[in-house]
């Protein structure tokens, strides 16, 4: 995208407005429209987006928030930042929070449930909302990995009272650096997030303690340019996922769990198998990079109060067996075929 981005970067630099320029307002309007939200508030990171969302919901010391045991660290650490306690819940076969296990974890202190749309999949919005209503909980959606996904008529970023996005370089819509956004229909929550991102300022006055969490104008301009390509990139990732799935269908591996009602964003293509480490070494020797998302469930971290693996059987199994194969919109057909062939050769199948 260098030829497209170079004049955009030059224009922003020439403007001299590096923070909160018109590029940020434009990106916010586009994100809100795409996610079906009234407000989008851009911030410096997806981590801050989660934290500001929790604060906006009134989460604080003495509260508990239900959190899936498998996700990126920021999902749970954002809860800790508020002074609240993340209550870890095992995951379902799709690596989303298991609502049956979540029901067992509800106490009189539980205030919210954090729904992580992991790897580009989505939880059933109706089930989530029914669960939250039954137990009187707020819903915060971590849609950092699912931008562009949809469950029926509900796009990622539209679930619950507030949602958080991330524009980390590893995400499907990535900034040159980092970035995030808070998405909500609540006017008060949106105003609060805007105050928090710039030192608590509102109408020229500093009305509360805030932070410096501004998305640079340059990053916003690049994200807006990428946003125009995002629908096509999403389609390409879905096509690549279908190619990989078909090519590996006869092998003794567990493929990503798919719900036919979900239009997947395919942030990750995660397979599971008992010989995970051996396959990773084989693929590395063949020039195919892999990663493990995630090798340490939250219940193993002292930060959250380490707990035994047998309390979280699904998350523990995932940590031992998961392997992420390459998937991004710039992969060529030849590269996808090479990935699939390398996996097949590991099993002795040409």
Attribute tags:
alpha/beta, 7-stranded mixed beta sheet, Aspartate Aminotransferase, domain 1, 350 residues, 11 helices
Number of domains: 2
Q: How many beta strands in the DSSP annotation?
A: 14
The number of helical elements comes to: 11
CATH architecture of the largest domain: 3-Layer(aba) Sandwich
H and E string: HHEHEHEHEHEEEEEHEEHEEHHEH
For this structure, what is the CATH class of the largest domain? Alpha Beta
Strand order of the largest sheet: 1-9-8-5-4-2-3
Polypeptide structure, described:
The chain has 350 residues and is α/β, with parallel strands linked by helices. Helices cover 40% and strands 16% of the residues. The protein has helices at residues 2-15, 22-35, 46-56, 74-81, 99-105, 125-135, 187-197, 217-247, 276-285, 313-321, 333-346; strands spanning 39-43, 64-68, 85-89, 110-116, 138-142, 150-151, 154-155, 162-166, 180-184, 201-202, 205-206, 262-263, 269-272, 322-325. A seven-stranded mixed beta sheet has the order 1-9-8-5-4-2-3, with helices on both faces. The chain has a three-stranded antiparallel beta sheet with strand order 7-6-12, with no helix packed on it. A hairpin with a 2-residue loop joins strand 6 (150-151) and strand 7 (154-155). Helix 1 packs antiparallel against helix 8, helix 3 (46-56) crosses helix 7 (187-197) and helix 8 packs across helix 11 (333-346). The longest helix is centred in the middle third of the chain and has 31 residues, at 217-247. The protein starts with a helix and ends with a helix.
């Amino acid at each position: 995208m260098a030829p497209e981005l170079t004049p955009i970067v030059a224009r922003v630099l020439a403007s001299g407005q590096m923070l909160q320029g018109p590029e940020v307002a434009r990106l916010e309007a586009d994100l809100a429209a795409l996610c079906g939200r009234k407000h989008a508030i851009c911030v410096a990171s997806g981590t801050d987006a989660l934290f500001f969302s929790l604060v906006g919901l009134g989460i604080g010391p003495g509260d508990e928030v239900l959190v899936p045991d498998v996700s990126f660290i920021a999902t749970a650490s954002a809860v800790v930042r508020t002074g609240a306690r993340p209550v870890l819940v095992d995951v379902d076969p799709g690596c989303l929070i298991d609502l049956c296990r979540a029901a067992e974890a509800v106490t009189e202190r539980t205030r919210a449930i954090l729904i992580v749309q992991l790897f580009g999949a989505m939880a059933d919005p109706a089930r989530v909302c029914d669960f939250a209503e039954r137990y009187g909980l707020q819903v915060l959606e971590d849609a950092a990995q699912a931008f562009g996904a949809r469950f029926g008529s509900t796009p990622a970023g539209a679930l619950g009272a507030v949602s958080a996005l991330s524009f980390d370089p590893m995400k499907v819509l990535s900034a040159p650096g980092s970035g995030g956004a808070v998405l909500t229909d609540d006017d008060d929550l949106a105003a609060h997030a805007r105050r928090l991102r710039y030192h608590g300022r509102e109408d020229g006055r500093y009305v509360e303690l805030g932070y410096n969490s501004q998305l640079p104008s340059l990053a916003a301009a690049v994200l807006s340019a990428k946003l125009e390509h995002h629908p096509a990139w999403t389609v390409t990732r879905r096509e690549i996922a279908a190619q990989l799935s078909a090519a590996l269908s006869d092998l003794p591996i567990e493929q990503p769990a798919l719900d036919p009602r979900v239009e997947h964003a395919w942030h990750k293509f995660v397979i599971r198998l008992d010989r995970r480490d051996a396959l990773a070494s084989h693929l590395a020797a063949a020039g195919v990079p892999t990663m493990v998302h995630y090798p340490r469930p939250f219940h193993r971290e002292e930060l959250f109060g380490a707990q035994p693996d047998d309390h979280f059987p699904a998350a523990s199994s995932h940590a031992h067996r998961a392997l992420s194969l390459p998937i991004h919109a710039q992969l060529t057909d030849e590269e996808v075929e090479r990935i699939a062939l390398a996996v097949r050769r590991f099993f002795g199948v040409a």
